[in-house]
Design a protein that fits this description.
With 129 residues, the protein is α/β, with parallel strands linked by helices. It contains seven helices and six strands.
Amino acid sequence: MIHAVLDGQALLSGIGWPTAPSRRLVQAALAGRVVPVTSPALLAELEQALAAPPLRELFLEPDLLLESIERVSLVVEPRKRLKVARFDPSNRLLEAAHAAEAGYVVTSDIELLRLGSYAGSKIVRPHPA
């Protein structure tokens, strides 16, 4: 089974926009072909993003959405804090991937994409269908 950490942008665009490059990945997760991986820190970042404009106008039931994401995901509690990237949200993605031994990190973060991989996880951008 494929385990993948999706950054917040990839995850929310895959849920909210039918033509988003990450839509196919979200559908694969809902069908049980991909196990999305997250962590309490990543869920907190999603919650914060959903509370801010313009997302709060687009996702009318953010608590239900977060609950659904948590229910279909493998939620890991990273034991190791990383400082690989300059920005903490990027490091949180790598921490979750490392804790779950995820095969992929899906992101549009240029700094992470330049790494190409980290601790056995391939770092890729969302691809259209």
